Amino acid sequence: MVxxxxxxxxxxxxxxxxxxxxxxxxxxxxxxYFDVSIQTIRLDRMxxxxxxxxxxxRSVAEGTYTRVRSLAGKEIIGELxxxxxxxxxxxxxxxxxxxxxxxxxxxxxxxIYAQAESLAIAVIDAxxxxxxVANIKYKQPxxxxxxxxxxxxxxxxxxxxxxVWVKIKLRMQEVFRGKFILxxxxxxxxxx
Amino acid sequence: MVxxxxxxxxxxxxxxxxxxxxxxxxxxxxxxYFDVSIQTIRLDRMxxxxxxxxxxxRSVAEGTYTRVRSLAGKEIIGELxxxxxxxxxxxxxxxxxxxxxxxxxxxxxxxIYAQAESLAIAVIDAxxxxxxVANIKYKQPxxxxxxxxxxxxxxxxxxxxxxVWVKIKLRMQEVFRGKFILxxxxxxxxxx
DNA sequence: CTTAATATTAGTATCAGGTACTAAATCCAA
DNA sequence: TTGGATTTAGTACCTGATACTAATATTAAG
Lengths: 192, 192
Known about the structure:
The first copy, chain A, has 192 residues and is of the alpha+beta class. Helices cover 39% and strands 31% of the residues of chain A. The first copy, chain A, has helices spanning 8-21, 27-34, 38-48, 53-71, 109-123, 185-191, and strands at residues 79-84, 88-95, 128-138, 146-158, 161-170, 173-184. Chain A has a six-stranded antiparallel β-sheet. In chain A, a hairpin with a 2-residue loop joins strand 5 (161-170) and strand 6 (173-184). In chain A, helix 2 (27-34) packs across helix 3. The first copy, chain A, is elongated. At the A-B interface, helix 4, helix 5 and strand 3 of A face helix 4, helix 5 and strand 3 of B.
């Protein structure tokens, strides 16, 4: 665990990396790892502008708490900027690095898909289940740091079945297209 | 903010609920909210077995830290139980309540999709981008609390393009089917 | 009304993991 | 060898707690 003989520069670089990888390290643990005093670690953190453990935990907790809430199901993926219930809607998703492959920076399809699906659901004013999807196409890979604009349109409604088209564009260029078939739950549930 | 005149039972019930909804409340904030002393809040937490703020933050942070890592991109969605690189693979996803609509308990399509996509990517041993998908079908709605078994198979490889079929079953019944077209990045990137 | 049990509050010591600050010691190079 | 950079030491203080003791309020029962 001990890493002796590092220069200040080297230590600080390594420290930054280490905290980035594991934000839950105390100054004490870090001081043991680098074999320097706690004060040195604190000076390093000051110089690097790295907040204390509790702040780091707080931001991880809060960040992922809301992220998981909005990302893991509760709400819409992306920001709903326009909505004409039952007809159409627009959402914007800022694709960040956490949604992309680390090496290539290409955004994982599941996030693009999730934006499209959640928008499709948002335009239907009911509890829905996805029962059939067809003709999904990813036209261009998307790299992180871009704003994705999704447009959804209800093209047909037959009973409790809704046919929704979603197109996602990146600076005027279409990167995704998908047709979703949604079934409203209220009625569907009783058929079960 | 003040909620006077609650019995111990009522206050503890409400306290539990309140902390569940917002785990980042200090004892002090809670004592103001319920208009009781900090000690009372602490006794209540003891009796209810609710850990202190920092423990709550830690568990939220750690839980979601690893969850976001496995859910928001880094790794595979679901557990990889079998893998024949370049040929086929099997993963199991325990669909929990956080992946489902609150009201209906129906699992959001994006998670099923994510399981399929990440398995498709896992069987290809390269950095890939999703460039075209077709023929996705959700055959049955899935309710939370079930084990989804995904099977992927590479059906064709042409240059840097891989065609992967993924089928997801729930107790022998097919609930999802999708064909993914993946492009290996190394070569594709240079064409850019 | 009084008493006993229950519930609540007060207060102290202690802890972890820090901040902020001062001062001393050590290193390293010209 | 001297001076600046670097590191370490030490103190006071902070937050949000635990653990514990003791006192006070409230409530129900006799």
